[in-house]
């Protein structure tokens, strides 16, 4: 085994741990950040700082970022995925718990299938996908039914309903950005694309904060330590380490395997929320989460079987190859 392969073998479980655990805790970090920062100022600081750090490192290595066309493509992707997808999560978490937000976002794969009309014939030719969609949305209804009337201090039911709608829209924005990025890829390196997306998303978040009057009366001097710690976690762990781990895993592992973070993140958030912030979920919410995750599994089950078959076929080919090599010499 080569040194590079050995290195990658050790990096893979570390990268999976990053996207499983860090992205699960990210929802909780947002709730801590919101104790001092308005939602879009928090998102803007998070994205812009992470993007500046990353692009600074890349420019120091000699990479170029002077293509306006690529900046434009990454701007659209960044605004949809980060400002819209993640910024709206921060807004929603003003009125729902981190656990509730994470469970709602777990429905993302369903929105991807619903919006990607070009591949509907492929999706719905698989009997598991429609069943998974129906189960997932049934689980979402059950979860929301248990959530809207759940006790949350100083938050009305109407605000919580609005928050859940906004969280659903954040998933839609993430999917639209992902589809745009897939159809309009930029020519820079992956990490340069990420850094540009983060910078533009940060600036766009600041603009949204301006129109929402979040800057009015805002003072850094009044920010509690917990909010600063939440922001630092979001910058270094959520927006740099976990995101880079995710992109790297996509280059070395099948997307179907990397997407398993969809199942793990809400579970991590629920556990971390209970341990760190004493957040709990009720019975209907728990049943809804279980049904949502089963639905997500069903929408991907065929891909997992195909992947398993390819892996087994590869193992058989390797075994036959070594069988020929190890076969004893037969004199003619």
TrEMBL record:
InterPro entries: AA-Vitamin_Transporters (IPR050638), EamA_dom (IPR000620), EmrE-like (IPR037185). Belongs to the EamA transporter family. The keyword Hydrolase does not apply. Keywords: Membrane, Transmembrane, Transmembrane helix. Its main location: membrane. This is EamA family transporter. It comes from Chryseobacterium formosus. It is found in: Membrane. SUPFAM superfamilies: Multidrug resistance efflux transporter EmrE (SSF103481). It holds the Pfam family EamA. Coiled coil: none annotated. It is a multi-pass membrane protein. The chain crosses the membrane at residues 12-34, 40-59, 71-91, 97-116, 128-146, 158-177, 198-215, 227-250, 262-281, 287-307. Residues 21-143, 164-300 form the EamA domain.
